Amino acid sequence: MRLNAGKLFALVSTILLTYSLAPVAPAAADTNLCKPSGADGAIALPRKLATANRPQEDKYTTADVEPLSSVNVDALGLRTPRTLTVGTEAGGPPTSCLNSAGRYTGYDNELLRAIAAKLGLHVVFSGTEFSGLLAQVATRRFDVGSSSIMATEARRRTVGFTNGYDFGYLSLIVPSGSPIDSFDELRPGQRIGVVQGTVEEAYVIDTLHIEPVKFPDFTTVYTSVKTHQIDAWVAPAMEATNVMRPGDTASIAAYTFGLGNFVAYAVAKDNQPLINALNAGLDAVIDDGTWAQLYTDWVPRPLPRGWHPGSKSALRPHLPDFAAIAEQHHRGIDEAAPPKSTLAQLRDSFFDWDLYRQTIPVLLKTGLPNTLILTVSSGVIGLTMGIVLAVAGISHARWLRWPARVYTDVFRGLPEVVIILLIGLGIGPVVGGLTNNNPYPLGIAALGLTAAAYVGEIFRSGIQSVESGQLEAARALGLSYRASMGLVVIPQGIRRVLPALVNQFIALLKGSALVYFLGLIAGQRELFQVGRDFNAQTGSLSPLVAAGIFYLLLTIPLTHLVNLVDNRLRRGRAATEPDNPLVSTTRQEMT
Amino acid sequence: MTDRGRQLTSVSLAGRDIHLSFGRNTVLRGVDIDAPAGSTVAVIGPSGSGKSTLLRTLNRLHEPDRGDVLLDGRSVLNDDPNRLRQRIGMVFQHFNLFPHRSVLDNVMLAPRKLKRLSADAARELALAQLDRVGMKHKADSRPAALSGGQQQRVAIARALAMGPQVMLFDEATSALDPELVKGILALIADLGAEGMTMLVVTHEMGFAKSTSDTVVFMDHGQVVETGPPDQIFEAAETERLQRFLSQVL
Questions:
Q1: pLDDT tens for each residue of A492-523
Q2: What number of other Cβ atoms are within 10 A of residue A418's Cβ?
Q3: What does the pLDDT read at residue A49?
Q4: In Å, how far is B153's CA from the nearest CA of chain A?
Q5: pTM of the full predicted structure?
Q6: Is 3.40.50.300 the CATH classification of the domain at B13-97+166-248?
Q7: Which of B55, B96, B174 to mutate to test the interface with A (most CBs of A within 10 A)?
């Protein structure tokens, strides 16, 4: 193992050296995507789009709203009184994202804050995957879903929506050099990427009749485009524009209007009081100019003809002439820059030191404690339940043995992520009151229940590997079966499987990353989620590398601890006793 | 080791018409065996003849299908088997010491848990038993650090610590290196000389000849011949015993 450590060190130092000798790196580009661009960042709507089909007839936007003063904030069906619990996405700048200060921000979320302020409500944000967001709103895990959600017919079957605060259209992103330059050229057999559960997914399936490749989030799908792993990405135009950097090996090939009428906040379908209240708040922030300010700061582009935010009676917002500003800056949305060299790309992806400096303190302060809490708590559950399962599994009583077997088969046979989603999203709403909406108890339960199945099998094999003579000798002394197992057989079984248990603990440590599926507020994020969020903000993989290093710092010493324990168990404690070294220490096993 | 003046309260042990099968495999076919109080009975016979199984039936590690076990003349088949085993000590071919406990703890465990002795009293008892078998100096070692002969001595001390009235030895020297056999046999012989009732399953014909009061020859799950050593070894009556002796002697 010393050799390996040496190799690792050599590898790392080579990489460091290579990097430091690389040709003068340009002053670190501002990689933070999660901040407002201001009016200067205005882009024009694509020309083709301006003349494309108008938004369909709008039957959902309300004619007017109730006066703000008549909203009863105590009758909004909120999880926590006077607090909006909001599910959002950390990786969708500029509309919803987590900034480097750990604040869930972006156009969607800042606007929601302004609306909540009008209503006198407190807001708490949790980051989650877009693919699970609507389900979590429907089951009232969150009061509101805020992630540039287009209010489509299909989605209205699951959740309710407020009036619109933005509009959306789709763009087609292709790798550099791709021959594809319009939606018409997309064919079955091509690998078309979409984010799971989005309007884009529905568009590709229902309108283009192509089976898309589904991704959990924007960052991953965009990385796949850049690396030519997919032929195209059908993307929401604003988010796509924002994650694309000059010099990236991908470009926008075409646009099309979004399917939905407008972008709105999702609310549980049966919670009309909250929808009404948010609509009232939205009109209020439109009427006092806040909407226009936030829109200009975050997503500056002209409104399509015939569309405006809020209810039909909301005032028309006054916006700068974004088309003219964009013209002035020669900033078309489809502007291309020469691609960067592969080496430069790799360097930006993996070795962005600025990002390491930003990420590591957060990993240390937030990620590491949370990962350890998750791992240790679920480890305790797994150990306790595991030993019960093992003892039940070797019992002579069928009514004990069978349930243990079935439990083990089920929990060992399911992917961890399935268990986490089923328990977190399924049981979550049922016990929401007990857990105070905190996903940790559920995540810990899911991880612990899974670990128990493995730990139970490890214990069982360990106990069964103890020679039958041990039980016989204990019973021959007059000890009962229970005492013989407890004093003689089980302690030996456990010692034998310590290495396997540590391996299981390592698996648990890595598995703890999966709780991010359940939606975590900024302070609850574990190592992976912290790295993932920085990765989503910046598009660079460096934060994930940093998170990976943290995992290695935890797991590698554990692995070596296993070896140490293993050796020690093999030798017994002979090393501490001045015994004749010629006497075989394994005599008992050999005879 | 014999001059310790210990007052052994050994009793007789007997099996009557014992039958035992494991599934279709019939191992004991009506065995009668008698070990009067204070006697040493050597059980000999080819491998697979049921000797070891017989011992385990006498302390009810296996329950006989039919027949009876008499301790001090009284049937024990309806007693609590754990109680019974406290009165009958057993020593195994492979020692079966508890490798995760020190030598001292191996000997202390049962007295501590079953006789509810205090830690000090149990330690004192255990050290006395270890001293008796010459292993007191290894009290703090782990079993794995001992030679086979040393481990078997500890195993004997462990069985004796419960103050048994009968001792069963199941091929106690078969797993030992030849040079260690003698010491263990001497220890067993000493125990017999002290008046312990003993059933000794053994392949050591010399030991059976010199130390036992009675020799029982078993084959195919039955007792074929029983008698004092002189008669068994010098004047075997059955052809099966004669053939067995001609092979092992």
A1: 998 888 888 988 999 999 999 988 877 777 78
A2: 12
A3: 59
A4: 14
A5: 0.67
A6: yes
A7: B96
